[in-house]
Amino acid sequence: MFTVKELQKIYHFGTESIEALQNINFSVKRGEFVAIIGHSGSGKSTLLSVMGGLTRPTAGVVLIEDEDLWSKNDCGRARIRNNKVGFIFQFASLIPTLDCLGNVMLPCLFNPKGLQWANQEKAQQLLQIVGLADKIHAYPNELSGGQQRRVAIARALINNPILILADEPTGDLDEETEAEVMKLLLTNIRQHQATLIMVTHNLHLAQRADRVLQMKKGKLQ
Amino acid sequence: MTLIGLAIQNLLRKPFRTYALALAVAIAGGAVFSTATVMWGVERSLDRGFSKFGADLLVVPKGALVGMKTALLTGEPSTFYMDLSLADRLRTLKGIRQVTPQLFLTTAEGSHCIIGNAFLVGFDPHNDFTVLPWLTQKLPREFKLTDAIVGANNPYQLGNSVYFYGQYFTVYGKLDRTGIGLYDNAIFIQIEKAYELAENAKKFTDVAPLGFAKGQISALLVQLERTAPVNVVRFSISRYPEVKVISAGNIVTSVRQNLAALFTGTVFLSAVLIIANILMISAIFSTIINERKKELGLLRAIGARKQRIFQLVIVEASLLTAAGGVFGVMLGAVLMRVYRRTIGFHLESLNIPFLWPAWSDITLLALAAITLSIMVGIFGAMYPAVAASRVDPYEAIRAGE
Predict the structure, then answer these.
(1) Which of A83, A97, A110 sits opposite B304 (nearest CB)?
(2) Residue B35, CB half-sphere, CA atoms under 13 Å: how many?
(3) Model's pTM, two decimal places?
């Protein structure tokens, strides 16, 4: 279970204050796919960032399987991000000096258990699942946008996360590739019984979600 | 893949920038290594030369004070003389253990000597305690009146003949290198023979007479009893109005003063280079962090702690400066090897004795220079690394979108 309680985020710019998130409350069950929609500046991305332990909220609680994310120190939050959360960003965000295998294995580098042979096997399996078995040693600049996004999905899944946070994961892709990537993502989410929370502008994509949350001026409608 | 592997790949991303930075560090590291090696060599020379020198005090004729220091350091003879009988008088003083005389004379250029301006020293082998301890090579027989012992800088080999003032001498022995100019450059003969040469010189019409008479000497080298206070004995000797007393420590101080004058500039330059390198690393790594903000944000998002990001930047800078340090040490070693004779000659011309440090010391200095280079990387990257660890991950990832 993933729960957000009375979440608030206020940004201060000199004497001015902007309330980016106002009293956000919701819960998501394991295996559920939730889409968050809203206009630009409505607070969707800030919400995703707070839920993922990247931006500290002004108030409120984020519970990932009963673990209070923001009561932890940096080390504890990093561990949760590494073990329980998988991020997929709007742009692929791959490390250009690492090949596909290196990029997929990257989260394992920050795992307390360290890199293990099993990680490499798993990364290869994931690349096979996302249809890039023949591109294991290709570098990001040798891949198309869709292929890069598949690598990012494989990377998000490497540590078996229970929560996947996706921020416009198909934003820059054509319709065909978008459908392919979404199919891949949803298949893997269902298979691993992970929760997917996706921020998107795309209503067509949102329709495929189990639940749609709409944000407006920092509030859930 | 490890953190070090990731750092290496980051460095290889822009090879020109990496190589240029490493070269700048190499220049500073090489300068520090070379300066330290030469300074160490001078210190070693002072320590080795004057600790084994054996004499605590030098008693010289009044007026020969400066000349004597020069004589000891470079082997340029002094032409002031005093009476040998002073040696016996000094032996009666309390606190003095041994006294040995030395007589300095130059050879003449021309048909009466086979070499140009050699520095001849007459010494008394029967009560010597400063020359013979350096004798490492010698013929398997007693030291005779017609024998000579040569300093390490002389080209002669054992058994060679040398010719001074119409007299042949057999090279009986060769001294180990001392770092004291007097001992390294001189040819030692028995003092009695030196008086004979002075008599011979008078017979040659084309040679200026040697400026001393039988029974005159250039210096008395004095060794004190172990417990004797140097200043008290020095004061006792100073009561003889015709002499001046120099302590071996004074000579070391004088050399150190020369050394300080010579090396202040070099040490200052090295310090400036190191500080400039720290600032340069700091500025360039700040740029690098800015360029890679998005990636750093991503690393944080996938589970990197702030500390790991800090480590990544520090490791990257340390690897770069370590490589620069290693290259600098190699560069310094090659340049010192190529210019080794020039360095020795230049220092000796400045009255600074010099011996190359032992290999073990050079290795230590090389390691110290590489460590210093690594420290340059760590200090230089400290601020950018802290800034990198404080990057707001989500802001960084979304930058430019």
Answers:
(1) A110
(2) 20
(3) 0.69
Nearest CA distance, B389 vs chain A (angstrom)? 11
| Contact yes or no for A61/A21 (Cβ under 8 A) | no
Question: Is A147 a member of any domain?
Answer: yes
- Residues in Cβ contact with B236 at an 8 Å cutoff, skipping those fewer than 6 apart: B93, B94, B95
In this structure, is residue A198 part of a structural domain? yes
In the prediction, which pLDDT does A146 show?
Answer: 83
Closest CA to B401 of A179, A169, A103, A147: A169
B86-92, long-range: CB within 8 Å, 24+ apart, which pairs? Answer: B86/B59, B86/B217, B86/B220, B86/B240, B86/B242, B86/B243, B87/B217, B87/B220, B89/B240, B90/B59, B90/B220, B90/B222, B90/B237
pLDDT at B113: 59
Does the beta-carbon distance from A75 to B301 stay under 8 Å? no
Please report whether residue A24 resides in a domain.
Answer: no
Return the CATH number at A126: 3.40.50.300
* Interface ipTM: 0.88
Residues on chain B touching A136 (C-beta within 8 angstroms): none
Taking all residues of chain A, what is their mean pLDDT, rounded to a whole number? 87
Virtual CA dihedral for B109, B112, B114, B117, nearest 10 degrees? -30
> Are B304 and B389 contacting, i.e. CB atoms less than 8 angstroms apart?
no
Q: Report the residue of B3, B4, B8, B302 to disrupt the A interface, i.e. the one with the largest count of A CBs within 10 Å.
A: B302
Indicate yes or no: CB of A82 within 8 angstroms of CB of B302.
yes
- Answer whether B300 sits within 8 Å of A45, measured CB to CB: no
Judged against a pLDDT cut of 80, whether residue B106 lies above it is answered with no
Q: Is residue A100 part of a domain?
A: yes
Interface touch A78/B304, C-beta < 8 Å: yes
Q: Which domain holds residue A184?
A: 31-55+78-220
List chain B domain ranges. 3-48+255-398, 63-241
Task: State how far residue B266 is from chain A, nearest Cα, in angstroms.
Answer: 41
Q: What total of structural domains would you count in chain A?
A: 1
